[in-house]
Structures are given as structure tokens and as C-alpha cells.
Task: inverse folding
């Protein structure tokens, strides 16, 4: 068990770290192979990396550099990096744009709600599934609850719009309780609930997998010891199970903060409409309308850069937090 | 860590080199030379000439998929067009309701087809600065029919409203001989008879009528409206605002709230006007008393139509086409003895006026077209199809002997086997659906005679009433510079969003009218004053420079 | 996998028995909540518009009606778009597998100089990316719009999948490869002849991961493709959800208003079902691969 390798995203991403340590260790050694020799020996391996590297260069790093259009005037059809320097013009513009502050607030609220609700619930569900004794029933619950994960966002949005339509089952229930039907998709006050529910429906089941895997790794002797100490199930969960899967929880937490600012942009784009903009419009949907539909590329680029930087800062802080609390971060 | 940075630097350099390569490829395309663009063009094309390209040509064009007559490849329109002009159109198809947005995306990205139709005045402005559009005003000499009509009908003043800051215009609009209005309300006349009332001529009368209808049929909302794309209440707020002397609905979306106050001689923001408030109060009264379906501003057209045709509502927004294509056939099934008509737009505090322009939606041309060897031929083709008498008749009526005939007095008559606008309801084929004529992409504008030629008698009556109303002057131009444009669009969007949301809140009673001043304050918090200053400054500037 | 912690629970206290009963009820509730939307959508798709509009459709179809199915299934555009989805999925998955496998294999070679940098190049993109606008501008400038490559290339390597594969390759015993190298096999042949045959399970899992994500993707296509005949079926569905297209796309033009209203009432349900059908159909058979993809190695060693 102790030599086991975990392949959850957390562990996978963490691999960057041991690799670097290796490098550090090796650097101290004098017999390090010089570049020329390395290339001579491994040139075939390096050739295998050419295409993937080209992919990263073009489709990942080039757009990062493309962010300079936040400081340059970009004209459609012109240079990828804009025409002329405009300094902080677009930064100033968005700082003075009331809509920007509104979408930023919406983004943060949706992000926090997702983190507060969609992050812990899979843990709870995993614990509950773990308590099931019937093998068949357990497998059945797992199979069914994973299913929504495999559906397209478009499908999930379509299903929710149908369920919540005025003639859908939810309003049917409201009617039978002689309440007024609610136009869920058109009420700004309902948008967050709708979004979070759809997110839950789609992700909670699948989210349990990683915890269920981690749960099987918790040392049984610890349970034994706890039982001998007279701890009940609940106390065992609190004192043994949760600490046992804490590194996994933290890793998932760090990964989640990575997508905090991006929220479920594609889903918001499908679920929102002008009526729900006051609560639904997030940074990325605003960027989409402003940049791609209305052609204010540089302005939208400036906001996008802001978002990406905030996102990076958040991941770094979450990782730091993770290191402080459980002693290990993703890297 | 040194190697890491080195590697990253290498990646960055490679990326930059690649980007530079992309950039140069784009610039390499230019410089075709405008003088050389006469390939396929006619040497002596003019008013009255049938355009025929000297060799077969293909032009790319954007085209929508209209719900009522989706594009078919076997339309007679295409084959006949090719026969007459030697031109084939290669279409990029866009669903109708997505058209405005996709059109913008495509132009912005710089990969628009050569011809982009269905562009409403004002919609072209955001693309001007990027240089994506051809400044058509520089090329009107290639458009003899267009020039002829502009002169004959004295449309230059209307055209001036399209000018941008550089004094040129980029949109080639459809032009009408006279102001023409189509959208109003349809009403069930049999229900009117039932309650013993005449058709309403004012909004106040409409209220009384709706009230009586509600008393008779308390379970239904007598008025359930449609047309909520791209803005809630697009039609209703539009026509209502005109009667109240302000700006709303579709016009608000196109003109971004800059309403021309003729008496003050300056622009004011429509939704901040007192008239706008009064209009909302009127609608709020209808909603509060259960006369207007609260879903009117959010439901899909199909749902509103379904309610109307199922006999669950008695008043709905309408134009000539929806009346005969949707309401009558639908009602005939569910409520066989129902009768429905389109009433002249009810009048309001603004009096016996109509608001309108003689400019219709039109086309913009990709700036790259001028580098094409067929540029002149394309301009001649556009001039013939959209602006020549022969082209207009062709686009509207089709082919003589196949789809229509002309009688001795020169009046058009549909062939018996062809239906259009309910003129031959039992005919097996439809002028739009099966032949592709009277397609909104190609057929609009033209002489009043041509326009009237497809009207049924009831539509002519409607037009008579509307023509009797006084036309308010069009708003003057206020072209913005590129930097102003950029700034303005950032102000317009949040303002428009806020207006649309609160318009609905006030109408549906979710916000009290005692908060009206607060609402105007909120608009000011969203830079309303700066925006109107910008508009008025631009107006003054243009008046001085080009006045 | 023995689960001793549950043995003791056999003689659970009263409280534990109540908890377990509650747990079963609760999890059954979760299952019902997960399945109900499907059931309702199926019922709606087969119902008559009158029952749908008045909100009477619940678990079973009311007023059985197949009009919308007929219209969608006879819409040539629907089939074109469905075909595109298949094509895009196959091509994108192929490209993705080639790139990911090559890179993962390189990254798995611990002796390789510059390996750390290569890993960092990939991992960094998990946490920082160019963003929507620069990406859009890039794809436009490269002239990839309205081509299959706009869909296939930008997401060709999922860093998560890459790391999973890398870890798997690292776990392979090096002896076979070393022997092959001594036999004079070059790196490409070793990868192709020795490593890949040993990695069938992980490859199958990766193919499934990629294929599902490409099958489901819509936004890239929505963003970069402007022509109807190029759309995948997810964008076809998106256009219906967004209300930009309805019956007219499917040829139910205004001639028969009754048909039009029927289509308006449940075209969304019908298209949703037709879109997810392949996924739901193969799901029971491949589900374990997905799970193993995440669990892979979790209890290894």
C-alpha cells in the first residue's frame, strides 16, 4: 500500500514537484550530462516532443502573449498583437465601467456559492455511499449518479430549461400546492439557485469518485484503534476518515479555486438571458458579448487579463493554504 | 531553474515569429488595385439597363433562414436570377433569430461574405472604425438606379442620417418612396362584436375594450403579446413609444436611446423622459388589471401565437404577414368563426402622428470587395437587384407568367396556383416558401405602387389610415469618432441593460413608480449625462462641418 | 479489497441501523433526483402539445405524438450536424491521442534532460491561460475559422489526461524497453511495438475521456464555426434552446400551424434525447473505464 501511486488529478499534478526535486538533486551532482550529449543520445525522444510543444506554443502560450492587446489598440483583421500602444487606457475604461463591477461581483458570488455547495457535497455523498453495505445497491447508486457528468453542458441546460419552464414539472408541483408558477429562467432572483442546482445535478455524483478512491486507502488499523477507544461511527468519520482523505480534499479544493473566476461560463451563457443579466452576467459572458459580439477586443482583452491574473493569484494562495494546513500542495 | 527560463524564452521567440508570419500574410492580400476591378462588368450600364455579367460570376452573401420561408436551393429565384444576371450567390446561412448577433460576429472577425444584407440603419456604425466595411458613398456613381431614386424621391436628407464622422456612409439602405409602417396590433373583431364595441383607435380606447373583454372572459388575459427579440416588448414598446412621443422597443435598441427632441433642438435619452414613464404606467395598469398577460414580454413568439390561435387571447402584435400566415390559419382550426383584423396603430398623447423613415434595412459590403477583380460587376449587380424597377419587381413578384401576370391597367396579379399574403388561400404553392420571391432579404423598398401591389384590400385600408398621419422629421446625424464610438458603446450597453430590466419591472409592478426618480438617478450613475453630452457634442460638430 | 470496517457494523447499535435505513432512503432519493429529469424529458418528447403547454406531462407521455420526432429525424440539417459530431469526435480524438501519447511518453523518461521544463510548460497552462479574447483572435488570424481544425486543435492536449498517461508510462517496467533498445529498436518502434501494446487499458480510457469531451463540446464550434452545415449536433441543440431556431430548421414551415405548435412544444426535449442517445446507450458498457481512468493506480502496487 505504501508504494502505491495515486492517479487522481491532485497527485498527477503534484508530480511536477518530485520531478523538480529530482532536478535539484541532480544539479548537485557533477556528472550531469551536457546538453550536446543529451541531444545526441535522446534526439528521437526530443523529436516526439516537437508536435506537442508546437501545440503548447501556438494554442496556449501565444494567446498569453496575445494579452498585450489589453494595452494596445487591436483592429479586427490587423496584427494579432494590436496596432499601437494605448497604455492603460483600457484598464482605466473598465475600472470606470459600472457593468464591470457588477459582473465581477456576480462572478465572485457564483464562484463562492459553487465552492461552498458544489465542493463539499461530493464529500458528504461519498461518505454516505461508503457506508452502504449492499454491494449491488452501492454500485447502482454510483452508476446512476455518474451519468449526468457525461452529458454536454448544452444538454444539461436544455433539460433544466424544460424542467423549470412554466409548464414543467417544478411549476406543476407549485401549482398543485396552489402557489403561483414562477418563470425561473427569467427571474434574476432565481438564477443563482438554478445555476447551482444544475451544477450539483451534473457534478456531485462524479465528484465522489476521487473521494471513494481515497477512502479505500485509509488505514484500517486506525478504525480498529478508534473502535477500541470506543468511538462510534460518527466519531470514527470525524477522527479517522476525514483526516485520512484530507490531502485529497485539499487537492480538489486547490483545483477548484483554479476555475473560480472562470465559473461555469459555458453553462451561464446557455442559461442566462437579458432579463437575468443583473445576477447572471459573469466576467466571461460579458467578455464574450463585449469582445466577440461587439468587437471591443482590446477592452475585453483587458478585462480578460485581469480575470486571468486574479485566477492565478487565487490558485497560488490556495496552494499555499494547502501547504500550510496539510503540509502538501499541488506543487 | 535556468534551463526552464531559457526554454520559455525559446518558446516565446518561436511564438512571436509565428505571429509575425501570420500578420504579414494578411497584409500581403491587399493592393489589388481598384481600377482593375472591372472583370465581368458591363461597359454601359445605366438606369433601365438589364444587368448581365459578361461572364458567369459568383458572389458570397449572408442570408437568414426565415421561419416562415426557410431557404431552399430549388427556389425559382436563384435559377432565374442566374439566367438574367449571370450571377450566382454563394450563401452563408444563419438562423433568423441569431442573425443580428452572428452578423456582427462575422463582420467583426473580418470574415464576412462580400454582401451582408438585412443591416438596419445604425447597426453598421460599430464596424466602421475597423475598416471592415466599404464606404459605399464613395461609389454611388457605380449605382445609377440608386442615385436616380435618391434624386427622384428626394431622399438625400434621410441618407445624411447615415453619415459617419468622416462624412461618408457605409450602409446602402433600402429606400421607400414614402414612409411605410407595417407593425401594429391584431384584434379579434368577433369578440369586439360580442362586447358591442368598435375597434379601438387610441390606447385609452384599447384599455376600455380590453376591460370589457376581461369582464366577458375573466379566465383569459385578453392581450398577450409577442416579439421579444432582441428586446422585450420590441414591437409593443416601439409603437406605444411613438404614440407617446418617446423611444422604446426596437427603435430603442437601434438608436440606443438617443431621442431627437425637435423643440429643444437636442438629443435626450428616451427612457429617462417623462413620456416614457407615462407609457410604462399605461402598461402597468393593463398588467395590474389582468388585461395584459405578464408573459407578454418574455414568451416566445410561438407561445403568444399559440394562445391567440387557441382563442385564449384576443389582441396580439401583428404585421400584414403574421395576420394571414399565422393567426388566420391557426384560428380557423381552433375557433372556426373567429374574425381577426389588423388595426391602425392606436393614437396617444403625441397626437395624429407617425414616426418613420423612408430608409429600410439595407446592405453593407465587405471592404475587401474593392480589391476583387469583379468589384464593378458586383456593384452593378447590387444596383440592379435592389434598386432598379425591374429588379424590385423581380424580387417581389417573380417571373411574369409563372408567378404573376400584369393586367391592362398595369396592376399585378398573382397566378391562380400561387398564394401570398392570403390572396389565393387555397393555392397549392406559395410565392415565398416555394419560389423564393418577396423574400425579406431582397424585396423591400421601392415605389408606393409596387409596395401596394401586394396589399389586400384590408391592408390598403390600413395603409390609407396610416398615410393620413403626419410624419415626424427624422433625427439628425451625430457621427462619432472612433475613440468616441468605443467609449459610447461601453456606456450604451449597461444603460440599455438597465433600461430593459427596469422597464419590465415597472410594467410588471415589481418596482413602484415612486422610484422613478431613483431609476433616472441610477441611469446617471451609469454615465447617462456623459453619454448624452457626447451625442450632442457630436451632433453640433457635424452640423458645423457638414451642415 | 476487504472491508473490515463494515464487519463490526453488522452488530450495529439501534442508532446505526436507523442511520443505515435513512442512508438507503436518502441515496434512493439521490438516484430518483438524478433520473427524474430524463424520465420527464422522455415523456415530454412523446406528448401532444396541448398536454405539454398546460403542464400535465409528468412521468408518462400524454396524448402520444411522434410529429416532432418525424420532423427532426427528416431534417437533413440534423443529420449533417450529427455526422459532423461524429467526424469531429473521431478526428479530434485521433489528434489528441497522438499528441498526448507522444508527450506523455517523453515526460515519462526520467533521465531526459529538460524534462522538468517540459513538464512545467504543460502544467503551467492548467492554471494560467490566454483567455477567451486572445484565443479567439488567434484562431481567426490563423485562418482556422470554419474549418474542422478550429475544433480539433485548440483542445488537443488535456493536461490532466497527459499526466495520467505519463504516470502510467512511468509505472511500466523498464526492462522490456531496455531489451528492445539493445536489440537495436529505435524509440518510435519501441513506443509503437512495446509500450503501446502494454498500455491498451489506459489508452482505451484516454480515448473515452477525449471522445466524450469532444462529443459534448459545443462552445468552440459555436465560436469558430459560422456555417450551419459545419455545426455539430450540440450547436444544433443550442440553437433550439436559445430560441434562434425551431421548426423552420426542420422544414415544418408555417403551412401547417398545428404541426408548428407541436414542434414548438417539444422540439427541445426531442433533440436533447436524440443528442444523448449514443452516450446513454454505451454508458453502461464503458462506465468502468471512466471510473478506472480516475482510479487508475489508486490502489496499485
Result:
Amino acid at each position: 500500500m505504501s508504494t502505491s501511486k495515486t492517479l487522481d488529478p491532485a497527485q498527477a499534478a503534484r508530480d511536477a514537484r518530485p520531478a523538480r526535486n529530482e532536478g535539484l538533486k541532480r544539479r548537485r551532482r557533477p556528472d550531469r550530462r551536457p546538453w550536446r550529449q543529451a541531444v545526441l543520445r535522446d534526439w528521437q525522444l526530443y523529436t516526439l516532443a516537437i508536435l506537442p510543444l508546437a501545440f503548447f506554443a501556438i494554442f496556449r502560450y501565444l494567446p498569453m502573449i496575445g494579452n498585450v492587446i489589453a494595452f494596445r489598440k487591436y483592429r479586427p483583421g490587423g496584427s494579432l498583437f494590436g496596432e499601437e500602444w494605448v497604455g492603460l487606457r483600457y484598464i482605466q475604461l473598465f475600472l470606470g465601467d459600472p457593468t464591470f463591477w457588477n459582473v465581477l461581483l456576480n462572478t465572485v458570488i457564483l464562484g463562492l456559492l459553487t465552492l461552498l455547495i458544489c465542493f463539499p457535497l461530493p464529500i458528504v455523498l461519498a461518505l454516505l455511499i461508503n457506508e452502504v453495505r449492499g454491494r449491488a445497491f452501492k454500485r447502482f447508486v454510483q452508476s446512476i449518479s455518474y451519468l449526468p457528468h457525461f452529458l454536454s453542458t448544452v444538454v444539461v441546460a436544455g433539460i433544466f430549461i424544460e424542467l423549470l419552464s412554466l409548464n414543467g414539472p417544478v411549476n406543476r408541483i407549485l401549482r398543485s400546492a396552489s402557489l403561483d408558477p414562477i418563470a425561473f429562467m427569467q427571474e434574476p432572483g432565481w438564477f443563482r439557485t438554478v445555476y447551482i442546482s444544475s451544477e450539483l445535478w451534473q457534478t456531485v455524483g462524479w465528484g465522489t469518485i476521487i473521494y471513494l478512491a481515497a477512502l479505500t486507502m485509509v488505514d484500517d488499523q486506525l478504525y480498529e484503534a478508534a473502535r477500541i477507544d470506543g468511538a462510534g461511527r460518527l466519531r470514527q468519520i470525524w477522527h479517522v476518515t476525514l483526516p485520512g482523505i484530507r490531502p485529497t480534499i485539499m487537492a480538489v479544493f486547490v483545483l477548484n479555486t483554479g476555475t473560480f473566476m472562470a465559473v461555469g461560463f459555458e453553462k451561464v451563457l446557455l442559461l442566462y438571458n437579458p432579463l437575468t443579466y443583473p445576477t447572471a452576467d459573469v466576467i466571461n459572458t460579458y467578455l464574450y458579448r463585449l469582445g466577440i459580439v461587439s468587437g471591443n477586443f482590446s477592452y475585453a482583452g483587458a478585462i480578460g487579463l485581469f480575470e486571468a491574473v486574479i485566477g492565478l493569484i487565487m490558485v497560488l494562495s490556495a496552494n499555499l493554504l494547502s501547504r500550510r494546513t496539510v503540509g502538501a500542495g499541488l506543487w | 531553474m535556468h534551463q526552464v527560463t531559457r526554454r520559455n524564452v525559446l518558446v516565446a521567440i518561436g511564438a512571436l515569429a509565428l505571429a509575425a508570419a501570420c500578420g504579414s500574410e494578411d497584409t500581403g492580400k491587399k493592393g489589388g488595385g481598384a481600377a482593375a476591378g472591372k472583370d465581368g462588368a458591363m461597359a454601359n450600364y445605366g438606369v433601365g439597363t438589364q444587368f448581365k455579367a459578361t461572364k458567369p460570376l459568383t458572389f458570397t452573401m449572408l442570408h437568414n433562414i426565415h421561419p416562415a420561408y426557410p431557404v431552399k436551393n430549388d427556389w425559382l429565384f436563384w435559377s432565374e436570377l442566374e439566367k438574367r444576371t449571370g450571377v450566382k450567390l454563394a450563401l452563408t446561412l444563419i438562423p433568423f433569430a441569431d442573425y443580428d448577433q452572428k452578423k456582427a460576429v462575422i463582420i467583426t472577425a473580418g470574415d464576412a461574405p462580400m454582401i451582408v444584407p438585412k443591416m438596419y440603419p445604425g447597426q453598421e456604425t460599430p464596424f466602421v472604425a475597423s475598416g471592415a466595411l466599404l464606404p459605399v458613398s464613395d461609389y454611388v456613381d457605380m449605382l445609377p438606379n440608386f442615385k436616380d431614386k435618391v434624386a427622384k424621391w428626394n431622399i438625400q436628407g434621410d441618407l445624411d442620417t447615415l453619415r459617419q464622422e468622416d462624412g461618408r456612409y457605409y450602409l446602402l439602405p433600402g429606400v421607400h418612396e414614402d414612409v411605410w409602417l407595417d407593425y401594429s396590433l391584431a384584434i379579434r373583431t368577433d369578440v369586439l362584436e360580442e362586447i358591442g364595441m368598435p375597434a379601438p383607435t387610441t390606447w385609452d380606447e384599447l384599455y376600455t375594450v380590453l376591460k370589457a373583454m376581461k369582464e366577458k372572459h375573466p379566465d383569459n388575459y385578453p392581450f398577450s403579446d409577442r416579439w421579444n427579440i432582441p428586446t422585450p416588448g420590441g414591437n409593443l414598446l416601439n409603437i406605444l413609444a411613438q404614440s407617446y412621443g418617446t423611444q422604446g422597443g426596437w427603435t430603442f435598441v437601434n438608436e440606443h436611446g438617443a431621442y431627437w427632441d425637435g423643440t429643444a433642438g437636442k438629443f435626450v435619452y428616451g427612457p429617462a423622459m417623462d413620456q416614457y414613464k407615462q407609457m410604462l404606467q399605461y402598461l402597468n395598469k393593463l398588467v395590474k388589471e389582468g388585461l395584459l398577460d405578464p408573459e407578454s414580454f418574455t414568451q416566445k413568439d410561438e407561445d403568444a401565437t399559440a394562445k391567440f390561435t387557441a382563442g385564449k387571447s384576443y389582441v396580439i402584435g401583428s404585421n400584414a404577414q403574421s395576420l394571414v400566415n399565422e393567426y388566420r390559419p391557426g384560428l380557423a382550426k381552433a375557433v372556426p368563426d373567429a374574425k381577426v383584423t389588423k388595426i391602425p396603430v392606436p393614437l396617444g398623447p403625441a397626437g395624429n402622428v407617425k414616426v418613420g423613415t423612408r430608409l429600410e434595412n439595407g446592405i453593407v459590403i465587405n471592404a475587401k470587395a474593392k480589391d476583387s477583380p469583379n468589384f464593378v460587376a458586383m456593384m452593378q449587380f447590387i444596383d440592379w437587384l435592389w434598386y432598379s424597377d425591374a429588379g424590385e419587381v423581380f424580387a417581389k413578384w417573380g417571373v411574369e407568367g409563372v408567378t404573376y401576370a400584369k393586367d391592362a391597367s398595369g396592376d399585378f396579379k398573382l397566378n391562380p396556383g400561387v398564394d401570398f399574403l392570403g390572396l389565393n388561400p387555397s393555392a397549392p404553392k406559395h410565392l415565398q416558401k416555394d419560389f423564393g420571391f418577396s423574400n425579406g432579404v431582397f424585396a423591400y423598398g421601392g415605389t408606393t405602387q409596387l409596395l401596394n401591389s401586394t396589399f389586400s384590400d384590408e391592408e390598403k385600408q390600413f395603409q390609407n389610415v396610416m398615410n393620413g398621419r403626419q410624419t415626424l422629421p427624422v433625427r439628425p446625424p451625430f457621427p462619432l469618432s472612433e475613440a468616441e464610438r468605443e467609449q459610447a458603446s461601453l456606456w450604451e450597453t449597461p444603460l440599455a441593460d438597465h433600461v430593459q430590466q427596469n422597464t419590465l419591472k415597472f410594467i410588471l409592478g415589481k418596482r413602484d413608480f415612486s422610484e422613478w426618480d431613483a431609476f433616472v438617478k441610477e441611469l446617471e450613475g451609469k454615465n447617462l449625462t456623459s453619454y448624452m453630452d457626447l451625442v450632442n457634442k457630436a451632433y453640433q460638430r457635424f452640423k458645423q462641418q457638414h451642415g | 479489497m476487504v472491508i473490515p470496517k463494515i464487519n463490526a457494523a453488522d452488530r450495529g447499535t439501534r442508532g446505526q441501523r436507523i442511520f443505515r435505513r435513512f442512508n438507503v432512503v436518502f441515496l434512493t432519493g439521490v438516484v430518483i433526483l438524478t433520473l427524474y429529469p430524463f424520465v420527464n424529458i422522455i415523456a415530454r418528447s412523446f406528448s401532444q402539445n396541448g398536454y405539454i403547454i398546460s403542464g400535465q406531462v409528468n412521468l408518462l407521455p400524454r396524448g402520444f405524438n411522434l410529429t416532432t420526432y418525424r420532423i427532426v429525424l427528416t431534417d437533413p440539417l440534423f443529420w449533417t450536424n450529427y455526422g459532423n459530431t461524429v467526424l469531429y469526435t473521431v478526428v479530434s480524438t485521433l489528434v489528441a491521442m497522438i499528441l498526448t501519447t507522444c508527450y506523455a511518453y517523453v515526460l515519462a523518461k526520467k533521465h531526459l534532460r529538460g524534462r522538468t521544463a517540459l513538464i512545467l510548460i504543460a502544467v503551467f497552462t492548467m492554471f494560467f491561460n490566454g483567455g477567451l479574447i486572445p484565443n479567439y483572435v488567434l484562431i481567426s488570424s490563423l485562418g482556422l475559422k470554419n474549418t474542422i481544425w478550429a475544433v480539433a486543435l485548440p483542445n488537443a492536449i488535456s493536461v490532466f489526461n497527459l499526466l495520467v498517461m505519463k504516470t502510467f508510462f512511468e509505472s511500466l517496467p523498464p526492462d522490456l524497453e531496455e531489451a528492445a533498445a539493445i536489440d537495436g529498436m529505435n524509440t518510435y518502434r519501441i513506443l509503437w511495438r512495446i509500450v503501446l501494446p502494454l498500455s491498451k487499458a489506459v489508452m482505451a480510457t484516454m480515448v473515452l475521456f477525449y471522445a466524450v469531451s469532444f462529443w459534448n463540446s459545443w462552445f468552440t464550434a459555436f465560436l469558430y464555426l459560422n456555417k450551419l452545415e459545419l455545426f455539430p449536433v450540440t450547436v444544433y441543440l443550442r440553437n433550439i434552446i436559445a430560441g434562434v431556431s425551431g421548426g423552420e430548421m426542420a422544414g415544418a414551415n408555417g403551412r401547417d400551424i398545428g404541426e408548428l405548435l407541436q414542434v414548438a412544444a417539444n422540439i427541445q426535449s426531442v433533440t436533447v434525447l436524440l443528442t444523448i442517445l449514443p452516450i446513454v446507450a454505451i454508458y453502461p458498457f464503458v462506465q468502468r473505464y471512466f471510473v478506472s481512468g480516475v482510479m487508475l493506480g489508486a490502489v496499485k502496487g
Notes: DSSP finds 16 helices and two strands in chain A.
